[in-house]
Write a structure and sequence with these properties.
single chain; 698 residues; 7% strand; alpha+beta
Length: 698
C-alpha cells in the first residue's frame, strides 16, 4: 500500500512539473509573439552579426600583434642575410689578400678593390639602414675598416719587400754572376789550382739563388736557412780563391766578389726581416681583424637568434591566446544563439501546428472547428485570421455549389447551341466560297459558249444562203463554193477552239468542285492541282488589277487532300484580294513551292499589299475576327485555313507581315498528310483545341 502511495505521489509531482513547464513555455511564447516574426529572425541575425563583429575585433587585434611579431622575425632573417653576406665577403677578401701577397697581380688587386667597395657598400647602405643592426654597425664598421686599412699597410710593406728583393738581392746576384764569369775567363785552364774552389763557390751561389727565390715566394724557413748557409759557403771560398789567384784580374774580381757577397748577405737578412714583418702584419692586422669581424658578426647573429626566438614565442603565444579567446566567445555566443533560436522556433512552431490542424480540418470538410490564435499580433496571427476567412468562405462556397451546378447545366446547353451556330457559320462560309467559285466559272465559261453560239448562228444563216444559191437558176459559181468552204472552215475552227476552252474550264471546275465537296484522300501532283485552282480563280483576277505568279515544280507528288489544299489557296487568295488590295489597288501575288527535306513541302503565299499591324497579326487566325465586319466579313476564312493546315494536313503555318510592306504565309506540310478521318471530323466540328502558332495573321 505504501508503494502505491509513493508511486502516485511521484506521478503527481511529475505532472505538476510538466504543467509548470508548459505554463512557462506558454508565457514565453506569448511574450515572443508580441514581437513580429521578422524581428525575431532579425534578432538571430543580429546575434550572429555581433559574434562576427567581436571575433573580427579579436582577430584584428591579434593580427596586429602577430604582424608585429612576424615583422620582427622577417627583419631578423633579413639582418641574418646581411650578416651572412658580410661574413662571406670578408672571408673572400681575406683569401684574395693572401693570394695577392703570394702572387701579386693587377687582376687580383682590381678584384680586391671591387670586393672592398662591396663590403663598405654593404655596411653603409644596407647594414646602416637595417633597424636590427643600426646599433651595432659602428663597431662592425670600425673592425671592417681596420681590416681593409691593414691591406693598405700590407701592400706598402709588400712594395718595400719587392724593392729590397730587387735592389739588394737580385742586383748583387747579377753582379756576382758577372764576376764569376770574369774569374772563369781569367783562368787559363781547368787544371788551375783555383778551379775547384771556384766551382764550389759557384755551386753555392746557384743554390743560394734558388733558396732565396723560394723563400721570397713561399716564406719557407728551410729555404731561408739554405740561402744563409750557401752565402756563408761563398764567403768562405773567396779567401781561398784569393790565395790561389794567378793574376791581377782574378784578384780584383775576387775583391769585388767579396764586397758584393757581403751586400747580398745583408740584403737577404733585410729581406728576411721584412718578410717576417709582413707575416706579422698579415697575422695581426688582416687575419686578426677578419677574425674580429667574424666574431662581431657571430655575436650579432647570436643576438638575432635570440630576438627571432623571442618574436617567435610572441607569435605562438599570441596565436594561442587568439584561438582560446575566439573559441570561448564562439561557445558563449553559440549557447546564447541556440537558446534564443529554440525559443523563437517554439514561438513559431506551436502556432503553426495549431494553424495546420485547423487547415487539415477544413480540408476534411470540418468547417465547424474554429481557428485558434486569430487574436495574435504577429504574422502567424494574420495567417490564422486569413484561414478563418477561408473557412467562412468555404462555408459560403458550399452554399453556392448547388446554385453553380444548376448554372453549369444551363451553360452547357448554351455552349452546345453556340457550337451549332459556329458550325453553321463555317458551313455557310464554305458554301459562299464555293458559290463564288461557281459564279466565276459560269462567267468564264459563258464567253466561249457565247462565241460558239454566235458562230453557229452565223454559220447556219450562211448555210441557208448557200442552199438558196445552190437551188437558184443561175447555178453555183466556183468562187461561191470556195467562199462557203472557207467560211465553214473558219466557223468550224472557232467552234472547236471555244468549245474546247469551255470543256477545259468545265473539267477544271468539275475536279475542283469534286475535291472540295468530297474530302477524299488521294495522290495528286501539287503543280497540276495548283494550276486547276488558279484556273478557277481567273474570273476574280480579271476584275482586279493583280498580277499572279506561280512557281511550283513539276513532279512534286502529294498524298493528301486536294480539296483541302484548294480551299486553302482559294481562301488565301480571296483574303488577299479583299484585304491586301482593297479599293482596287494593284499589286502582285506569288505562289511558290519547294521540297523541304525528304518528307515535307514548303508552300509560300506572298503579296505586296497593305500588310498588317501587330495587333491584327496576333488575332488573324482567331475565329470570327475580321477587320471588315461592316462590309460583310465573317472572320472565318483564315481560321478555316489554319485548321485545314494544322489538323487535316498535319502541317504548320506561319505568318510574317509589316504594315505597308505586304504579307507572307509560310505553310510547311508533310508529303504524306498526317491527318485523317478524326482530323476531318474535328475540323467539321469546329471545336478542336488550337495548337501553338509561331505567329498570327490577318
Amino acid at each position: 500500500m505504501k508503494l502505491v502511495l509513493v508511486g502516485l505521489g511521484q506521478s503527481n509531482v511529475a505532472d505538476r512539473r510538466a504543467s509548470r513547464a508548459a505554463r512557462g513555455r506558454a508565457l514565453i511564447v506569448g511574450l515572443l509573439r508580441a514581437v513580429p516574426i521578422r524581428w525575431r529572425i532579425l534578432s538571430i541575425a543580429a546575434l550572429n552579426s555581433a559574434v562576427v563583429l567581436v571575433l573580427a575585433v579579436l582577430i584584428w587585434n591579434g593580427a596586429k600583434v602577430l604582424g608585429s611579431a612576424w615583422d620582427d622575425v622577417r627583419q631578423v632573417r633579413e639582418s641574418d642575410k646581411i650578416l651572412a653576406l658580410l661574413e662571406s665577403e670578408t672571408g673572400r677578401l681575406q683569401n684574395l689578400i693572401h693570394r695577392y701577397i703570394n702572387q701579386p697581380s693587377s687582376e687580383l688587386f682590381a678584384e680586391i678593390l671591387l670586393l672592398r667597395e662591396a663590403v663598405l657598400g654593404t655596411l653603409t647602405t644596407r647594414a646602416s639602414t637595417d633597424p636590427m643592426l643600426s646599433g651595432s654597425v659602428e663597431e662592425l664598421e670600425r673592425v671592417t675598416v681596420r681590416f681593409l686599412d691593414g691591406f693598405g699597410e700590407l701592400r706598402a710593406v709588400q712594395a718595400t719587400i719587392a724593392k729590397t728583393y730587387e735592389e739588394q738581392v737580385q742586383a748583387p746576384a747579377k753582379d756576382i754572376a758577372g764576376l764569376y764569369s770574369i774569374i772563369e775567363g781569367a783562368t787559363g785552364h781547368r787544371d788551375a789550382p783555383i778551379w775547384p774552389s771556384l766551382g764550389k763557390s759557384r755551386e753555392a751561389f746557384t743554390a743560394m739563388l734558388v733558396a732565396a727565390n723560394s723563400y721570397y715566394l713561399t716564406l719557407a724557413t728551410a729555404s731561408a736557412e739554405d740561402a744563409r748557409r750557401n752565402t756563408e759557403i761563398m764567403e768562405k771560398t773567396i779567401p781561398v780563391m784569393s790565395e790561389l789567384a794567378e793574376n791581377d784580374l782574378q784578384r780584383l774580381a775576387l775583391q769585388r766578389l767579396s764586397a758584393r757577397t757581403e751586400a747580398l748577405r745583408q740584403g737577404l737578412e733585410k729581406l728576411s726581416e721584412q718578410l717576417s714583418n709582413r707575416t706579422e702584419l698579415l697575422r695581426n692586422t688582416i687575419d686578426a681583424s677578419q677574425a674580429e669581424a667574424i666574431g662581431a658578426i657571430d655575436g650579432l647573429s647570436a643576438k638575432m637568434r635570440e630576438r627571432e626566438q623571442r618574436a617567435q614565442e610572441t607569435f605562438d603565444r599570441t596565436l594561442a591566446n587568439i584561438s582560446r579567446r575566439v573559441l570561448s566567445i564562439a561557445v558563449i555566443f553559440l549557447g546564447i544563439i541556440l537558446s534564443v533560436g529554440v525559443l523563437i522556433a517554439l514561438s513559431i512552431r506551436l502556432p503553426l501546428q495549431q494553424l495546420m490542424a485547423a487547415m487539415r480540418a477544413i480540408t476534411l470538410g470540418d468547417y465547424d472547428r474554429e481557428v485558434q490564435g486569430t487574436g495574435a499580433r504577429d504574422e502567424v496571427g494574420a495567417m490564422a485570421r486569413a484561414v478563418e476567412v477561408f473557412r467562412e468562405n468555404a462555408i459560403a462556397k458550399r452554399k453556392t455549389e448547388d446554385e453553380l451546378r444548376a448554372s453549369k447545366e444551363k451553360a452547357e446547353s448554351a455552349l452546345l447551341e453556340l457550337n451549332t451556330a459556329q458550325q453553321n457559320l463555317i458551313d455557310a462560309e464554305r458554301l459562299a466560297a464555293l458559290g463564288g467559285l461557281v459564279a466565276g466559272v459560269a462567267h468564264e465559261v459563258n464567253n466561249p459558249i457565247g462565241i460558239s453560239l454566235t458562230v453557229a448562228s452565223s454559220f447556219a444563216r450562211r448555210t441557208e444562203m448557200f442552199e438558196a444559191e445552190l437551188k437558184s437558176d443561175g447555178g453555183l459559181r466556183r468562187s461561191q463554193l470556195e467562199e462557203f468552204v472557207r467560211t465553214s472552215r473558219d466557223a468550224a475552227g472557232q467552234l472547236v477552239a471555244n468549245l474546247h476552252r469551255a470543256g477545259e474550264l468545265i473539267q477544271s471546275f468539275k475536279q475542283v468542285a469534286v475535291d472540295r465537296s468530297h474530302a477524299e484522300r488521294r495522290q495528286f501532283a501539287l503543280g497540276e492541282a495548283t494550276d486547276q485552282i488558279i484556273a478557277s480563280l481567273r474570273p476574280v483576277l480579271k476584275r482586279a488589277p493583280i498580277e499572279l505568279t506561280v512557281d511550283v515544280p513539276e513532279g512534286l507528288g502529294i498524298d493528301g487532300y486536294p480539296g483541302s489544299y484548294g480551299q486553302i489557296l482559294t481562301n488565301l487568295f480571296l483574303n488577299a484580294v479583299n484585304h491586301a488590295f482593297s479599293d482596287g489597288r494593284s499589286g502582285t501575288i506569288s505562289i511558290s513551292a519547294r521540297p523541304r527535306g525528304h518528307d515535307d513541302v514548303e508552300i509560300i503565299f506572298a503579296d505586296n499589299g497593305a500588310g498588317m499591324t501587330p495587333d491584327v497579326q496576333r488575332q488573324a487566325f482567331d475565329p470570327f475576327f475580321t477587320t471588315r465586319r461592316n462590309e460583310g466579313g465573317t472572320g472565318l476564312g483564315l481560321h478555316i485555313v489554319y485548321n485545314l493546315v494544322t489538323q487535316q494536313l498535319g502541317g504548320r503555318m506561319m505568318l510574317e507581315s509589316r504594315l505597308g510592306q505586304g504579307t507572307t504565309f509560310r505553310i510547311i506540310m508533310p508529303r504524306t498528310a498526317k491527318g485523317g478521318t478524326e482530323a476531318s471530323e474535328t475540323l467539321a466540328d469546329g471545336t478542336a483545341e488550337w495548337p501553338n502558332r509561331t505567329m498570327s495573321s490577318t
